[in-house]
Write a structure and sequence with these properties.
Number of strands: 12
Shape: globular
Number of domains: 2
Radius of gyration: 21 Å
Order of helices and strands: EEHEEHEHEHEHEHEHEHEHEH
CATH superfamily of the largest domain: Dihydropteroate synthase-like
Oligomer: single chain
CATH topology of the largest domain: TIM Barrel
């Protein structure tokens, strides 16, 4: 089966994502001749979208070939075939059953995280207690971070992160849970993988030039998140012409960086970055339309836990009191195909999330995400 990143001109914008009422977003035809060639295939342009892409309807009986060689995108006949292939591959990706969701339990080793800063140090009783609570809460993976990425946060030096993380890894390895390291630094990631961690959670989307080659060399799983700018500047970069379409294009660029470095698709999980370079209303739109990103053909992680997009909806709750709202957002993402959920808590809320996913995807119990 052809995947979106295997099509010609995969680096070009306007990847296919589903819209409302069975319509699809894709590249614009640019000419009446291309529109006519598309119509002959069974694809009808309905309207232009704000980001320069187009909204399409695809006839039910349309049989669209997806085996396509590189050609001239200015040629109307070839462009029509390329647009139709993008739509066809996206529809095939949406038809695939996503893996049953798995839970990443958050352990922050920082003093300034937005909801639980300073509660857990790199070693000692507090760390062991937190890890045990998460084990009881049914977590599949422990996600350790030594650098806050809340809005406005400054970078933490590599050596400080390593000094926080290595003792924690040593203490947590005997629990037998896979350990994911939340870091933007390839230096920190390498040290933690050497110490026994098995996954990297990179909120910068492989921005460190050394990160993608490291992941390829080690063969470990990586969660690569969409973010514009840095945690210190990201809230200055919240303008999107068409949110879900822009996200799809920028997330595919992350995938291209990964694949060009030699990372296998089975290693890569994409995260749209709820709360990172997005306003509250944009975050809620991502949660509501999360499943559209499955058209990219890669497993997805959702991280809504305790984020500020809930603040105006739950004005009586401090960040560490937003677990109920977090479970609601996570259940909605899971019911749309999120294969990984990153949360501060599990327990009964995780039961609800698993039930929501199983109701949406009845065969999901037979599908297991690769760790």
């Amino acid at each position: 089966m052809v995947k979106p990143w295997e099509l010609p001109w995969a680096e070009m914008p306007h990847h296919a994502v589903p819209l409302d009422c069975g319509t699809w977003r894709g590249p614009s035809p640019l000419s009446a001749a291309c529109q006519g060639a598309l119509a002959a295939i069974g694809v009808v342009e309905l309207e232009h979208l704000a980001d320069g892409s187009s909204c399409y309807g695809v006839m039910r009986a349309a049989e669209i070939p997806v085996e396509l060689e590189y050609g001239d995108l200015e040629n109307p006949a070839y462009r029509a075939q390329w647009i139709a292939a993008r739509l066809a591959v996206g529809r095939e990706m949406m038809a695939l059953e996503p893996a049953a969701p798995q839970l990443l339990g958050i352990i922050n080793l920082t003093e300034d995280s937005f909801s639980d800063g300073g509660q857990v140090g790199p070693e000692g009783f507090a760390l062991a207690s937190r890890a045990q609570d998460l084990a009881v809460d049914q977590v599949d993976i422990l996600d350790l971070g030594a650098e806050s990425t809340r809005p406005g946060a400054e970078a933490i030096p590599n050596q400080v992160q390593i000094e926080r993380l290595l003792p924690a890894i040593e203490q947590l390895l005997p629990l037998g849970k896979p350990l994911s390291i939340d870091t933007r630094s390839a230096v920190v990631a390498a040290a933690c993988l050497d110490a026994g961690a098995s996954m990297i959670n990179d909120v910068s989307g492989l921005a460190d030039p050394g990160m993608a080659p490291l992941i390829a060399q080690r063969g470990c799983k990586v969660f690569a998140m969409h973010m514009r700018g840095t945690p210190a500047t990201m809230q200055e970069h919240c303008h999107y012409d068409f949110l879900m379409g822009d996200l799809a294009d920028e997330m595919m660029q992350i995938a291209r960086v990964a694949f060009d470095a030699g990372i296998d698709p089975d290693q890569l999980v994409l995260d749209p970055g709820i709360g990172f370079a997005k306003t509250a209303s944009q975050c809620r739109e991502i949660v509501a339309k999360f499943g559209a990103l499955r058209a990219l053909g890669l497993p997805l992680l959702a991280g809504p836990s305790r984020k500020s997009f809930m603040a105006d909806l739950l004005p009586h709750c401090r960040p560490n009191q937003r677990d109920g709202g977090s479970f609601g957002a996570a259940a909605l993402c899971a019911s749309q195909g999120a294969s990984f959920l990153r949360l501060h808590r599990g327990g009964g809320g995780w039961d609800a999330i698993r039930v929501a996913a199983a109701c949406a995807f009845p065969n999901q119990s037979m599908v297991t995400a690769k760790l």
